[in-house]
Amino acid sequence: MSQDDRRGLEVALxxxxxxxxxxxxxxxxxxxxxxxxAFGKCANRHGHGHNYRVDVTLTGTPDPRTGMLLDLVAxxxxxxxxVLQAADHRxxxxxxxxxxxxxxxxxxxxxxVWERLEDAFQGWDCDLExxxxxxxxxxxAEVGRPAGS
Length: 149
Fold this sequence. Notes:
Elements: H1 3-7, E1 11-23, H2 32-39, E2 48-60, H3 72-87, E3 90-91, H4 92-95, H5 106-117, E4 126-136, E5 139-144
Parallel strand pairs: 1-3
Antiparallel strand pairs: 1-2, 2-4, 4-5
């Protein structure tokens, strides 16, 4: 056993996933003009699409036998079942219940992914550390555990 294995160093493992979805920003409590002012072209109720990238980061101590934090097949299955099947090729405003009463902003999508995954790793020797959602090359939102938790 190597020195690192005996020390039980914590590692962070990040896996990247992709989904395509459409959305729009429109608050029915606002007038058409107010929506256009607040959300610009994103207020078009016909929507527009993105190819989202989702980074899921887990932390923990790798299994000393396999050297792995989590079986990647299991991670892929969890994210597929809890996130990708619900979001891929969907209109987020219409087809994802979470967004029935909130706008599918990048920030809210990151929170939604976090909430879908936050209890998924119970029983594994790892924790969900961070979710990062990239809406485009220059826009992303991140949700993570508070420091010290």
